[in-house]
Amino acid sequence: MEALPAGAARIADVATLAGVGEATVSRVLNGHANVRPATREKVLEAIRALNYRPSSVARNLSLRRTMVVAVVLPWFTNPSAVERVRGIVGAIASSPYDLMVFDVESEDRQRRAFELLDRGDRADGLLIVSMLPPDPELKRLRAANVPCVLVDAQHASLPSVVVDDVAGGEMATRHLIELGHTRIGFIGDTPPEFRFDWSRDRTRGYERALERGGIELRHEYVREGTRSLHVARSIASELLRLPDAPTAIFAASDTQALGVLEAARSLGIRVPEELSVVGFDDVEVAGYVGLTTVRQPLFESGRRGGELLLRALAGRPLDAHSELLPLELVVRGTTGRPVRQQSSVKASSSSPA
Amino acid sequence: MEALPAGAARIADVATLAGVGEATVSRVLNGHANVRPATREKVLEAIRALNYRPSSVARNLSLRRTMVVAVVLPWFTNPSAVERVRGIVGAIASSPYDLMVFDVESEDRQRRAFELLDRGDRADGLLIVSMLPPDPELKRLRAANVPCVLVDAQHASLPSVVVDDVAGGEMATRHLIELGHTRIGFIGDTPPEFRFDWSRDRTRGYERALERGGIELRHEYVREGTRSLHVARSIASELLRLPDAPTAIFAASDTQALGVLEAARSLGIRVPEELSVVGFDDVEVAGYVGLTTVRQPLFESGRRGGELLLRALAGRPLDAHSELLPLELVVRGTTGRPVRQQSSVKASSSSPA
DNA sequence: CACTTTGTTGGAACCGGTTTCAGTCCGGAT
DNA sequence: ATCCGGACTGAAACCGGTTCCAACAAAGTG
Lengths: 353, 353
Hints:
The structure is a homodimer.
Chain A: H1 11-18, H2 22-29, H3 37-50, H4 56-63, E1 68-73, H5 79-93, E2 98-103, H6 107-117, E3 125-129, H7 135-143, E4 148-151, E5 160-163, H8 165-178, E6 184-189, H9 198-212, E7 222-225, H10 229-240, E8 248-251, H11 254-266, E9 276-281, H12 284-289, E10 292-295, H13 298-313, E11 322-325, E12 328-330
Parallel strand pairs in A: 1-2, 1-3, 3-4, 4-5, 5-11, 6-7, 6-8, 8-9, 9-10
Antiparallel strand pairs in A: 10-12
Helix pairs in contact in A: 1-2, 1-3, 5-13, 8-9, 10-11
Chain A binds a DNA duplex through residues 10-12, 15, 20-24, 26-27, 29-30, 33-36, 39, 54-64, 121.
């Protein structure tokens, strides 16, 4: 008579069929002790018969726990962000937690995301990537006792996984200086309000390297634009058309460095003979195009962040310690010694292939 | 005296403070009609005063709706899968739904994911990428009335977004044949049980192209391996060391094609002079290394799948129609005419090693 | 003025679990 | 035989919303 189940079985159905109380079914489900083996068997039998599975929503409500970890990040379109997410996925995969992704491309969406999250009823923990939540949100998160870990961002009151962007910027720039460059351009990132300002730190590293190298900072060499390939390309074009154009450019991200390479190509400027280019990140393509860059462990940053969060969720206390991941200069084919040029006399025909 | 809230405000608190019933608060929250303006204002005032925000879990339980869309996919590590996810994120971002990601690298995790999902209490809809859920799960999903859309997979009872893999395989192979190649190798994918078997279709396309081109199929040219760069590389090495080695290789994915390129490089075989290579997908790196490949709209497939699912969630019926996305051969630098080699004199008539 | 309507409202019953708490049943000790 | 503690068990009170339904007031109708 009841061909179609008309909805999944509830715990009450199991209890009825097994001839026990709901509490007992719950105890069996959660492996609590003190259930007589015979009773347990009856319950399991009923569960099997009804193909019963508890509703996780109801469970969440009752336990005040969701078994979900949320990742909040701006620009999921960014390849380096994706790499971090992959690390996070890797870390979370072997845990009982599931993953929710919030791509907050605008401040509006950011607010919405945190409104959902800061009560702690949508996710048990947060991984915040490459951005900083506004302070009121942080307060609420703390009040709701939702552990957070920052990845590629830093805050006095939160644990984080970062790299030393100042050192990285300096590393890249020093490499160019050591090769003999003195006219070194920089293409940075204009951070939206809500994003973490790592670009600024790389700029500082750039400035510091120049200073230590005894090279005067030229403001017309320092430009900012959104972190996109084609914006970087047009900025690079301007830079390269300067009367006294730089012989090297340090771009604050690989994506932007690729834009610089395109600009050079379309202007007929040869790399690295006439222009050296350094990027930052070491995304996959960097290896394929032979881009010299500062490698930061993107995947690892996500994995590590995930681990820290899991640890916090497991109840182990988590201090606001900031974990520093190593940077490494990867020298490939886009950097070389500058040619002595006044009016681009002769391109050295005996350049290293 | 109550400095710390000791937990977020509940609807009851709002009701009390506003001096109305809970039902009325709920009406105000959900914009129901028939609430006197004065009452509404009192409630809003109380909400503001308490900084109240409804618990989404409680809401979910009551409404039997989660406002979550889940993406289930094997191998989040795969760049083409990531590209699809980005398309999905793009489509979902502009909707009221949030996104959950289930990376099911093993059958075990797959089962777990569907156990969570098939009751429909964790997500309102599913996007299943590059895999096929087992039939019992599909039944449960249908019973629970959870709409599903397949991306890069096909099933008689479900709507899907796909490409014509047979045509794609044929397209790639025909390109090689038209260039004059007759000894064409194929490196395919060994699909785990639970994954959708597109590799098989590409193999069929390969076979069909050979047939139509009047070229005899040589089984020693057809190999399978997991979809990874280094496995493909070692397979390619074997292929290239064959006494009568192929002059061209069609790899069922760009990742594998990159492995082939590496194998060629380490064997000192020049591409495309001595070996032509065609991939499949057109991931970002393909453009940078100049790989000839069959482009499939990865991002678009995710976006389109997301759209279809949103439509279904909006109540519009959704038939099991399969949406076909276009393929396009992108000729770059890894394919060319074969050179006449002397060591092998008319291969097909003599004995195959 | 009595008698529907119609517009607002709050009590209470859900949604489907977990957990407290009080009770039952039992063997062992006095 | 009586008492006591511990092992099991189920009714009921949560978790925090939504919504049915009955109640009641104000307004419209005869």
